[in-house]
Amino acid sequence: MEKDTTNKEASIDAAPSGCPVKGVGYKASSSADDQPRGFLRGWFQSSNSDGGVAHSSALSECPVKGGAGAIPASIEEAAQHSQLPVPGQKMPLSQHRVISTIPRGDNTSDQPNDDAAAQKNNEGRAAVPAHQPTNSSQWMYPSEQQFYNAMRKKGYNPPIEAIPSVLKIHNAVNERSWLQVRKWEKELHNNEEPKLVKFVGRPKDLSPKAFFNSRVLMTQEPFDRHDWYVEDTDGGEPRRYVIDFYEGKETPAEQQKQTTTIMKPPSMYIDVRPALDTPGAALDRIVMAAREALPGLTAAFDSFKKSE
Questions:
Q1: Which of 28, 130, 296, 308 is deepest in the core (most CB within 10 A)?
Q2: pTM for the whole structure
Q3: Nearest-10 crossing angle of helices 163-189, 144-153
Q4: For the purposes of burial, counting CB atoms within 10 Å of the CB of 94, is it exposed (0-12), middle (13-18) or buried (19 or more)?
């Protein structure tokens, strides 16, 4: 499932959730751009009849910064919402919140705050979002009920029976992305236990690499993008990683199956690499490319370093 030296195709065998999974919901609109595409179309193109009401909702700092109506609920956004069922809800949803394996980095403040103020005042190091427990050392995902409530408040009306699957897939994609970040940190910065300070959704912003690939090489665009900030163990500014999510290819048989089943594990490419914010980040990309191209030499070099 290699797309390039950093791209990994994730055939997720779990069920879904927010940010990286594009179009998690159907919004009533005549524009095709507002409707889910790819592997999620089969889940959400037929909405329930119990009618969602569009409300403005406060967005948290992490995935999907686009404002109401742009992209469905993300992890952090969903986690802000109530655990109470919406009026007329046809079936109960779990209120249990799953703790991720992603350690939360230290922040300059542990006080709940407005996201815009956090980004302005802390200059890249956001305070603990109000939806995250201040005494937790790991990021916590929203519950099924919170995720559903967030989507309804954004004007989406997803089939409620699909929410557990969508949330699990979303969580699984985030975990897979974190494994790739850990690889970069371990191999290039000797950081065995990296911590995530914050993550920002940028679904409408093409990274330079994605722009070149899609405009010059005529490959597909990513359906979502995240920027993840990892704590610098030396006390410097957090390292920013760019993560592009690409829809995997499906055979005609798989496409036909998608129209007849409520859930099918998605196929996608996850391209993780450090953002080119510093010369060191560019060097990191070169070194990682060399390590991937020469695995035997890399293994010998790593073994030599450990023996010193």
A1: 130
A2: 0.69
A3: 100
A4: middle
Residue 206 confidence class, pLDDT cut points 50, 70, 90: very high
Asked if residues 272 and 243 have their Cβ atoms less than 8 Å apart, the reply is: yes
Residue identified by tokens 């079936």 is 91
Summarize pLDDT for 59-97 with one digit per residue, the tens: 233 333 333 333 444 555 566 678 899 888 999 999 999
Q: What is the pLDDT of residues 99-133, one digit of tens each?
A: 999 999 875 434 444 444 444 444 444 466 677 87
Q: How far is CA 71 from CA 29, 201, 285, 294, in A?
A: 13, 10, 30, 40
Beta carbons of 127 and 111 less than 8 angstroms apart = yes
Cα gap 211→227, rounded to integer Å? 16
Q: Are 75 and 19 in contact (CB under 8 A)?
A: yes
Tokens of 295: 């695995």
Supply the pLDDT for residue 74. 52
Q: Are 3 and 246 in contact (CB under 8 A)?
A: yes
Query: How far is the C-alpha of 239 from the C-alpha of 232, rounded, in Å?
Result: 6
Residue 287, CA distances (Å) to 196, 277, 280 in order:
23, 16, 10
How many CA atoms within 13 Å lie on the side-chain side of 119?
Answer: 11
**What is the mean predicted confidence (pLDDT) over 177-192?**
96
Helix (H) or strand (E) holding 194: none
> What stretches of the chain show up as alpha helix (H) in DSSP?
41-44, 75-79, 115-122, 144-153, 163-189, 208-215, 252-258, 279-293, 295-307
